[in-house]
Structure formats: structure tokens, C-alpha cells
Amino acid sequence: MKKYKGFIVFTALIFGTSIISGCSREFSEKKKNEIKIGVTLYRQDDTFISSISSYLEDISKEKEQQENIKIQLDFVDAKGSTTNQGNQIDKFIKQDYDIICVNLVDRTAAATIIDKAKNANIPLVFFNREPVEEDLNRWNKVYYVGAQARQSARMQAEIIIEEWNKNKSKLDKNKDNKIQYVMLEGEPGHQDASIRTEYCIKDIDNYGIELEKLADDSANWQSDQAVNKMNQWIQEYGDEIEVVISNNDVMALGALHSINSTDVFTEKPIVVGIDGVKEALEAVNKGDLTGTVISDAKLQAKAIFDISYSLAKGLDVNNVQGINGKYVKTQHTKVTKENVDIYLADSNK
Prior knowledge:
The protein is about 50% helix and about 20% strand.
């Protein structure tokens, strides 16, 4: 009787082990063929960030079909709130996402986010808003995708210099041999805003063109704030304004709206932006916007996705196109009336 009972116990153990092993294999297969990527955005209504999001969705769907794998890509909008973003990241961690992609509301919050993700062993891909190097080095599973801000500033300066050389008699309205300008800056503390502001002016100055700043202020990347700022400056400086330099296209388009809504100008000031959003390319094509600098949202989205996919699948991240250590920084393209047709056609695809 004892031998019989022992045989039953032994059989039950074997059967139970088989079930557990089978479940474990099933879970492993499921994990292997499913990837969960959480993306938290500082503001989903930001035009450029919205473009990155759309491209991410397209790239994800394409990869699903190519690799026969399920990719769950979830976006959440922090609406400019650090508290919201912190809660969103906590939720992603609690729900065991494979990768978390972060468009920071506040760069100073990066360390806290990294420490949370490290404790949960969930890799992070920051994008568009760059944490300081010290924070990125807190863990070996943290990456950043952005653009070469210094290059965008240089190209923006080139557009203004070229216009000065071609149409100086129209641009230099008061014939004082220098440029009177106003500057619309992005969000305070954003690394790209600081670099674009500083180096665009430096490059024009280094070329030998004298500059006079009439006004500068932050419009936080937003069109409505740019309209308000530009309206104020038009009232204060009027026809003295010769050039409007904007850290992004959305603010540049806001400035254009103000300029086109008044008749105070004997010659409208030239306006130059950065990002290459479709509306800006259309404005360049019409001759309203003098130029823009394309920041390739599609290329940045591809880098964000490729890093995320590689990390989730255990692949070598160093094989991601353009990666340099923990960074992918894409290049820019200068756009004026002369070449806008090419890029406008691409934006319509």
C-alpha cells in the first residue's frame, strides 16, 4: 500500500513538473513573440512630436508584418506635467512593458526616471529632450535619440546669410549695413533651443554681418504664443524688424500670421524656422517663409524604434544605424525656395 501511495505521489510530481515546464515554455514563446513599448510624450499636440509618433506607429506596423511578431505600442500624453509623466512611467513599469520611451517634460527629472526603470530592469530610450550626460551614464540600458542642434543653427544662419547676399537692398531696409532682428526661442531649458539661439547668431556674426537684437523671448515652441510675442514686437518696433529667427517652424508660422495681419511694413521681414514640418514647407514654396531646416522626424522615429526593438529582442544595439555609444543624433537638411519641391513631395507621400 505504501509503495502504491509513493507511486501516486511520484506520478503527480512528474505531471505537475511537466505542466509547469509547459507553461514556462509557453510564456517564454509568448514573451519572445510579443513586445510592449510604452511611449510618454511631453505634449502630444506638439507638431514635431506628433510627427515622430505617427512615424513610430507606421514603422511598428511594418515590423510586425515583416517579422510576424506582435508589437504593442502605447502612447500617453503627459500634457506638460512632470507629475503626469511620472505616473505614466510608474504604470508602464507596473504593467511590465519591455521598453519605455520618454519625451521628457523636465530634463531635471531624468535621474528619477532612470532609477525607477533600472530597479525594474526596463530599458529606456529618451528622445527629443536630451538628459545631461551624467544622468545617461547612471545605467547601461539608457539611450537618447535626437538631432544635431548645432548643425541646424548653422544651416539657419546660412539661409539668412544667403538672403543677405542676394537681396541686401531689400533686407537692409534702413540701409545701416546691419540686421535688426527678433528671436523666438523654444522652451527655456531645452538643449536644442539654447543651442539654436546661440549658434545661429554666432555664425552670422562670424561671417561678418553686424547684428542688432531688437527683442527675444520664449514662445515655448507654440504658435499662439509666437503670435502674441510678434504682435507685441510689431507694435513696439514696427518696420524696424528685418529678420525673424525662430527656433522652430510652428513659432515661425505664428510670426508669419502676425506679419501678414498688419500693413505697417514697407518690406516684410524675412522669417526662418527649423523642423521642416509640412505647413512650413508649403509656406517656403509660397515664398512666405524664407527657409527652414528639416529635422528628420522619420529618421528619429526609426532610431527610437530600432533601439527599442533591439533591446527587447536581445539584439546588439550597436548595429542600429547611426548609433554612437548611447546616442543617435540625426542630420538636418537646409530648405529654401530653390529646393523645397523635393521635400514637399516627400512630405505628401
